[in-house]
Amino acid sequence: MNMKSNWASRNQVVKSTVYAWFFFGLMVSAFAVEDYPVLVESLLDGASEETVAKSIFEIKSGGTEAFPALLDHINDKRLAKRSFFQQNLEEVNPDGSVKLTPEGKAQIHLPTIGDACLMILKSEIEGDIAPNPKFDILLPDSVRRWIEAHKGQTVAQMAESARKEHLARAEAMVALEPDKHYWWDAVKKYRTTAQEIQRRIAALTADGYAKVFETFVEGKSDDEVSKAEIVIREAGVEAYPALLAHLEDKRLVVENWFVSEKMSSDASGHFPRATVGGACFKILHQEIEGYWPLSYERFYAVRRDNVKQWVEAHKGQTLDQMSESALMESLRWAEAELALHPDDTDVKGAVEYLRERKEMLRRREVFRRYEYHQKFPY
Q1: Does pTM top 0.85 for this prediction?
Q2: Taking the CA of residue 142 as centre, how many other CA atoms within 13 Å lie in the half-sphere pointing to its CB?
């Protein structure tokens, strides 16, 4: 099946609006290998959300023992539960053009059981980490060969093997296009493992993160900056006071990192150099609100002029809770403006985008709630 994909929707594994399914995490039951095909059958579109949620959890809890059943259904064309597995995928014709409905709109691909099985396998092995289809490893025509080649590994070991392959691909793209900051971003994500992150957090935060900010300053190596940035991001809300305290730090950061707050290049194509303070704001903003199209940035909840007050007002929340709070603020703001200007296409686009982000946030939250194995965060 040929399909075009919106990058923002890739690797999002399960979605549900019913938060009560969290309690299945307390009910890990022992399943035999022969039970997993039955669980896969439970992912069909006609099943209840409760049944699908529990089946996903049990499949993921089974680790590699569930993989044969998932692989056996990779080509299963029966429809899967759309409220869990729908992605923003368009059907395309053999010539690459998008298939259209009789109304002239793009024809959206409905998720199949094969799609659902691949999504679960990808979430277990690749996680939610590939920022670009160029880095995808597990594809319908390659997933069986890849898993067979790594037979005998645990899920965590497979995840580490996938991380190394992602890193190799990202580094290859940096070699081809060294001026593209998004390839550097990918390299940063793949350069370290969860165990290394924990060691680096201990080493770099012993003095209250001062070493981290010193590492951002120009003159340091790319590898040093990469490690420091990952440490500060992995520390989460614990590091926010330190980030806020350095917002006015005017020292320039290492070139090619934290490209700019303005996100625009000059006539020569170079991005303005960022300051340490700018880097701190960018980390805070990206961690809370993620990456948005620049045309919708006026609806940001977290901005340079309010970030201190906003974080203080949401003190005590987890990062996920902050992300949800910020998103709902932005959506309410955009919807209010749309009510005043119903014909404004830019505002309409912002509302649609933010509503889609709301659904993506729900998918991610349910994915995390049903997570069983420790995943690499990058």
Answers
A1: no
A2: 6
